[in-house]
Write a structure and sequence with these properties.
heterodimer; A: 586 residues; mainly alpha; Cytochrome C Oxidase, Chain A; two-stranded antiparallel sheet; 2 strands; 62% helix; 1% strand; B: 300 residues; alpha+beta; Immunoglobulin-like; five-stranded mixed sheet; 7 helices
Amino acid sequence: MSDSHHEESYWRKYIFSTDHKTIGIQYGITALLFLFFGFSLMMVMRWQLAFPDQAVPVIGGLIQWLAELNGFASIGNLPSDLYNVFGAMHGTIMIFLGVVPLVVGAFGNYIVPLQIGAPDMAFPKLNMTSYWVYFIGGVIMLVSFFLPGGAANSGWTSYPPLSVIATTGQTFWLLGMVFLITSSLLGSINIIVTIIQLRAPGLTWMRLPFFVWAQFVTSFLLVLAFPPLEAAGFLQLMDRVFDTSFFLPSGLVVGGEALDVSGGGSPLLWQHLFWFLAHPEVYVLILPGMGVIAEIIANNTRKPIWGYKSLVYSVVFLGFMSFIVWAHHMFMTGMGQGMSIFFQTTTMIISVPSVIILSCFMLSLWGGSIRFNTPMLFALGWIPMFGIGGLTGLPLGLSTLDIHLHDTYYVIGHFHYVVAPGTIFAIFAGIYYWFPKMTGKMLDETLGKIHFFFSFIFMNGIFWPMLIQGMAGVSRRLADGGESYAHAQGTLHLNEFMSYSAWLLAIAQIPFIINLIRTLLRKKAAEPDPNPWRATTIEWTDTTSPPMGHGNFEKVPTVYRGPYEYSVPGDSTDFTPQTSKLIKDR
Amino acid sequence: MIEYLGKISDHLGLPVNAASHGLIMDLVLGWVHWVMFILFAGWGLYFIIALIKFNSKSNPKADYNGVQSHYSKFAEYGVIIVEAFLLVGLSIPLWSQLRTTVPDADAAIQVRVIAQQFAWNIHYPGADGEFGDTDIKLVDEESNPIGLVRGGAGADDIVTLNQLHLPVNQQVLIHLTSKDVIHSFGIPEMRVKQDALPGMTIPVYFTPTMTSAEFINKIKDTNRYSPSGNYMGLGQETWEILSEEKKNEFRGFQIACAQLCGNSHYKMRGFLTVETEEEFNAWLEEEAEYLEEEDEDDDW
C-alpha cells in the first residue's frame, strides 16, 4: 500500500488527482450540476407546455437573449426552435452528462475499490483522463447553446436526415458525444480490470457486494455498446461536414430544393446503430441504481438480501439480453413479421430477470427489522416507482400495442418512471448512505425525509399524467403541448398540473441542497465513526475514520464471508463484517 | 367474460375507435393493463404489509433466513405464462394481420401519402387507377409539391395538401413515404401509426367504420368539440369566425405527426374526412374538375 507522506500540491490533490475518491467526487459534483441544469431546461419547457407562447416569468429576459443570440424571435417566450433545442439537450444532458457520470463515474469510482478492498483503481491515470475527457465533452455541449441556430435540436436520438440538415449545434453534439463516449470507455475498462484484478484476498465472485456486480455488468455494457455509437457518430459527422451519405437516401427534397448529396444511404442504419447502444444504455442507467438499492435494503432490513445468487445471475442475464432487444424502439419503422417476433420475444424475456430482481428486493423485506432512515426511504420509494416503470414497459414491448402508443407521452411516462424516480431515487439513496464515508459527517435526517416525501409526491405528479396523455394518443416533442391537435384537447388541462409538479419538485430539492451545504460547513467530530450504519461490507468495516487518505486501506483486508451477513444466529451483534473470521470474535 | 375483461379499455382514456381492427387492439390493451394492475396491486399489498409488520419497532430482531416459502416462484411463472400468451396468442398474430397482410392493390382504395416538413401530401391515382411517376426535378412547393409527372398515368392524378378523404367501410391501402426527414403518420381514432421514412415506401392499411359526421356527433360534449385555451392553435378570434363546416374539420379526425421533424412538428396536422361512398365519389369528381380547370388555364 502506498503510504504517501509527502504533501501533494493543491493541483495534484484536488484538480488533476489520480485518487479514485477525489475523481469520484469530481464526477459527482460535475454531474449533479449538469443534472440540475438539465432539469432547469425542462422547467422552462414545462412553462411553454402549460402556457404556450407566453413570456417565461423571472428568466424571460435570459430566454429572449438566448433565443435572439441563436437567431429566433422571442418576446421572452420559448420559441419552438429553442423548445426543440432544450428538448434534445435535456435528454442528452440528463443521460450522458448527469446520470451515467453519477452512477458510474461517481459511485462506481468511489465505492467499487473500497468495496473490493483495493488501494485504488487499476489505472489511476486513465481514471483521471476519463474525468477530464468527460469534462471537455460537457464544455462542448454547453458552448453549443451559444451557436447560431442554438445547440442540437433533433432530439437526443438525433435521427437523420433531420439531424444531418440541422444547424451547427448538431456538429458540436456529435463532437461532444465522441468525448463523452471516449470517457465512458476509459472509465468502464478501468472498472472491469479493477474488479477482476484487485479484489482483496478471499473476496470470491460470489462474495462480491451486489453493487460491485451491477457495476461490473454495467461496465461491460458500456464497453461493448458504445463503440458502435461512436462509429455512427463519426459517420453522421462525415455526412454533415464532408457531404457523405451514410444515412441519406437518394431523392431528398428539403424546403422545395433537391438536396445536393449523392444519396444511397439509409436513415434506418443510424437507428440500428443508435439503439444498439441506447438500449443497453437504459440498463447502464438502472443497474448501478439496483446495486445501490441492494446495499441499502440489506443494511436497513438487518438481514441478508433475499436470493443473492438469483440477483447475480439475473443481472448478468439482463446485461446479455440488453444487447438483443434494441429494435423494439423501431417497431413502427416498417418492420416485418420475423424481426417483430424476434424483438418482441427478447423483450418479453428480458422482463423476467427484471421481475426476479424486483421480487428479491421485495422478499428481502420479509422478516427484517426495518429502519426507516433517509437512504432506506429512497430505496423503498424506488421499488414501486421502478415497478410502474417496468410494468408500463409491457404494453410498449408488444409491437401490436405499440401501434397506438409509439412516440406518445405514454413512452415518456414509462421511461421517466424508470429513469427519473428509478435511477435518481437510487442516486439520492446512495448519496445519503455514503455521504458519511466521503466526509465523516451524517446528513440531517429531518431535511432528508422532507426531501424524500416531497420528491416522491411531485415526481408522480409529473409522470403519472403523461401516461394518461399518452393513452389519448398525444405525441411527444410537441412544442405547444398538443394544443394544435384535436385528440389532445381532452388531456390538455393536465399540462398545467404537470408543470406545477415539476416546479414544486425543484423546490423540494432545496432541503437537499441546504442539507449538503450545512453538513459540509459543520465541524467534523474529532474521530468520526467509520461505520455509522453498522454495515458489513469492507468500505465500512476496514477503513480508518473518514475521510480516508490516498491508498485507502492501512492493511489489506482479508475476506471470509458473503457481503450481507446481518443478524447471523449466534453472533453478538446484528452484523458480521465480511472480514471477520469468526462469528463470535466481536 | 372476455368482453367484461376488456371493459377496462373503456376506462383507459383511449380515443374513440373508428376502425374495424380497433376493437381487438383496445381489448388487448385493456387486458395488458389488467395484468399490470393485478401485479402492481398484489405486490403493493404485500409491500405495505411487510413495511408495517417488520418495522424495527414491532420486530426488533431480524430473521436471518427470511422468506422460506416459494410462492414468489409461482408468481414469476405466472408472469412468464401470461407474457407468453400475450405474445404468442395475441401480439404476434395481430401484427401479422395488421401489418404484414397487405391487401391486393385492386381490392382497396389506394392513396399515396408523401410527408414533408410540415404537411401531408395526399396523392390519389385518379380515374385510371394508376399513380403517375414522380421526379424530384419537377418539385415546386407551390404548384407541384410531389414532383408529379403530368402526363400518361399522372394526367388525371389528384394531389391535395393535408386533405385525406376516404369512403367508410372500405379498406384503404396507403403507400407512405417522405420527401425530406422522418415523420410518423398517426390517426389515433383509426388506431394506425407508421413512421414515414424517406427512401422507403411502407404500406399502411385499415378500414374506417365511422364517418366524420357520425364521429362529430359522438364527441359533442367533449373539449374536442368546444376547444378552449388556444383553440387548437388557432386562437379564439379565428376559431369564432370559422364556419361550422370548417370547425368540424378541426374537430374531426386528424393526421398527427408522431416523430420529431423540425420546428413546426407540433402543428403538422392533416385532416381526414370519412364519408359515404357517394360523398367520396362526388368529392373526387369535384377535385378532378379543378384539375381540368387548371389544364384549361395552362392551355390558354
